[in-house]
Design brief:
This protein is α+β, with helices and mostly antiparallel strands and about 500 residues long. Helix content is about 60%, strand content about 10%. It has one domain: Outer membrane efflux proteins (OEP), CATH 1.20.1600. It starts with 6 loop residues before the first helix and ends in a 6-residue tail after the last helix. It is found in: Cell membrane. This is NodT family efflux transporter outer membrane factor (OMF) lipoprotein.
Length: about 500
């Protein structure tokens, strides 16, 4: 039991346990608009939380879903992010341990032979009954506790907790980026396969057209420039095919790396062409304020702001003295091990420690100024991240709306050219049009199909960008009242994001 002389110190510690020097964190005002400019025009619908968390399933492509699941399980960027979470968790554990008492157990047994050639040995040797051999036993139990009177250790734990939460949100940001990049690359692969098929059919059409024009030229029924024009058109189409193949190879390799496997691993599953995934309707667009709880990069920025705010208090706590309690209970004997735990061999000590950087306030002032500067930097970074997040959403939905409109217009044009081609072929069947007219109609239709395919690719990729800009469809948690200690979305709801 502690001596009554230590009671005032313990009482002071208990009274001030709930207090901590330095500013308490309050979420700053975020520069957010009340609504999105493109909200009215954006195609949105309501969806369940599960559907929002797994937004890629809205593309209704089982292979895409399988690839994203594989990427989320094997991606090496995610492995690095998980390792950073483990490091932050270890740092948090260290700050937790600093708030609690700690103890040590030590023991020793020594056997020594005293020299009788030294002055001390000669004196001892002259003592009757002196034995040059000596034996000593000791066993001690010690404990120490730094009393966090002014809250410096608690501020350090608050900062470590915020760093840990930021690392978890950073892991979720990486997961969202991996899923979006995998979907984007898969869409690009399907789009390039579609365009490659169109280009190959277009090259065949141009080759047939060149054969017909060359035949007419040989008979004197077509001018030389018509042959040259047809040859140039054929060369242009043929030159585009290697470019498309190069892009397709690069996209397939990039997808394999994203999945954490060597390039070529998933090529057999992707070699068979498939349609470009249809652009889904975005579910539950929400309001700009929801981004503070949905987007992991905003959670990271705010948690870092919480950490820098707490470190101001940690630095201010260095102005004040630090108290510690240390106790020791043990036993020591130089006779025999059997006497080690007898009452005569017992020993005890109690120490009240005081450490105060009384003449080091200049260095403390510099540390506080450094902490305040880091906090100001984190605040500016947070507000910039908020602005860029809203810009990202606005740009993503503008691209989605306009790409959808472009794709719809090009589909109409493709349908019109398809009807024109049918009319041309019907006229050719009646002898009212030449085969060249039919081939030219085929070429125009294929050009329109390629333009429509490109628009469809960009429309689907815009949908991926919109999902990503909204934070992947996270459910917004309940808000925190102003002035209270923050309970971040990353700590409560981060597990809901996939």
């Amino acid at each position: 039991m502690l001596s009554h002389r230590f009671a005032p110190l313990v009482l002071c510690a208990s009274v001030t346990a709930g207090c901590a020097v330095g500013p308490d964190y309050q979420r700053p005002e975020a520069p957010l608009p009340s609504h999105y400019m493109g909200q009215a025009a954006a195609p949105t619908t309501e969806a369940s939380a599960g559907a929002l968390a797994t937004w890629w399933q809205a593309f209704n492509d089982p292979l895409l879903t399988r690839l994203i699941d594989q990427a989320l399980a094997q991606n090496l960027d995610l492995a690095q992010a998980a390792a950073r979470v483990s490091q932050a968790r270890a740092g948090l554990g260290a700050t937790d341990a600093a708030l609690r008492p700690w103890g040590t157990v030590s023991g020793s047994a020594a056997r020594a032979d005293q020299s009788i050639e030294t002055p001390l040995g000669q004196v001892l040797d002259a003592t009757p009954g002196y034995d040059r051999w000596g034996t000593a036993y000791q066993m001690d139990l010690g404990a120490s506790w730094e009393i966090d009177v002014f809250g410096g250790l608690r501020r350090g734990r608050e900062a470590a907790l915020a760093d840990y939460e930021a690392s978890r949100a950073g892991e979720m940001a990486t997961r969202l980026a991996v899923a979006a990049q995998t979907a984007d690359t898969y869409i690009l692969i399907r789009g390039l396969q579609t365009r490659l098929d169109i280009a190959q059919r277009q090259a065949k059409t141009q080759q047939d057209l060149l054969s017909k024009v060359s035949l007419l030229h040989a008979k004197g029924l077509a001018a030389t420039y018509q042959v040259r024009q047809t040859q140039a058109a054929l060369a242009a189409v043929q030159a585009s095919i290697p470019v498309l193949r190069t892009g397709l190879d690069a996209a397939m390799n990039a997808l394999d790396v994203m999945l954490g496997v060597p390039p070529g691993t998933n090529r057999p599953a992707l070699e068979t062409p498939a349609p470009i995934p249809a652009t889904p309707t975005i579910a539950s667009m929400g309001s700009p304020a929801d981004l503070l709880q949905r987007r992991p990069d905003l959670i990271v920025a705010e948690r870092r702001l919480v950490a820098t705010n707490a470190r101001i208090g940690e630095a201010i706590a260095e102005y004040y003295p630090k108290f510690s309690l240390t106790g020791l209970i043990g036993s020591a004997t130089a006779v025999s091990g059997g006497n080690l735990f007898t009452s005569g061999a017992s020993e005890a000590a109690a120490v009240v420690g005081l450490r105060w950087r009384l003449f080091d306030f200049g260095r403390i002032n510099a540390q506080i100024d450094l902490a305040k500067g880091q906090d100001a930097e984190a605040l500016a970074a947070y507000r910039r991240t908020v602005l860029r997040a809203t810009e990202d959403v606005e740009n993503a939905f503008s691209a989605l709306v306009n790409r959808n409109e472009q794709a719809a217009t090009l589909r109409q044009g493709e349908a019109s050219l398809s009807q024109a081609r049918q009319s041309s072929f019907a006229a050719y069947s009646r002898g009212a049009a030449s085969l060249i007219d039919v081939l030219q109609a085929d070429d125009s239709l294929l050009r329109a199909s390629d333009a429509r395919a490109q628009a469809q690719i960009e429309s689907a990729r815009a949908a991926v960008g919109a999902f990503r800009s909204l934070g992947g469809g996270w459910q917004a948690p309940s808000t925190t009242t102003s002035g209270s200690q923050p309970q971040p979305a990353s700590e409560r709801d981060i597990h809901a994001a996939s």
